[in-house]
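Before the break, one more example. Copy the sequence into your notebook; we will annotate it together after we see the structure.
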Amino acid sequence: MSTKVLLVDDHFLFADALGSVIRALPEYEVVGVAQSGAQAISIARTSRPDVILLDYHLPGYDAADLIPRLRSLSPGVRIVILTSDTSDGTLVRGLRSGVEGYLTKERALDDVLDALRVVAAGDKYLTDEQVARTHAVTGEATGDALTERELEILRLLAQGKPSEGIAEELTISANTVRTHLQNIFSKLGAHSKLEAVATANARGLLDR
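Here is what the structure looks like once it is written out:
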């Protein structure tokens, strides 16, 4: 039984060329080429692909938003992000969305086909370097990862809310907010609220 593959990329020529290569391999069936998140959802609903090769940035969506919808429509689907975005923030969001593989488009075609084979077989195609970069960016490797509460406070800071407003919204005391802020500054190496928000944005921590 062939593995059903869905390609999702807003650069149609790239996706169509890749699809032509995959179609020539007898173990795969290309069930669709989508150029948008909406098209990907429609094809996933009707075709139930086994593997999705997914561009990270799409019209109206990014992969982190789209992946839960695709998984709900095709339970058990295995997803490989294939993107031209080489930033740490996109890598962090991609890996945190639980994908089975992650490649940038600068990689060779053989690497893409290798990732497809590995993921279709039930394994993950993630390099040690990708995992290490994610840990370095988030602080997870050193035990300095931000807690959900700290991320909550950072998001409210990014919206321009003062400490008092944050305390009121989260129904915690102003002293507790200050304690959280001190921890945030320490973990991010920041010296002000503005610097903390800028650092968190650069690391892709506020897009979760």
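The chain has a mean pLDDT of 88. The first strand starts at residue 3 and ends at 8. Try to locate both features in your own notes.
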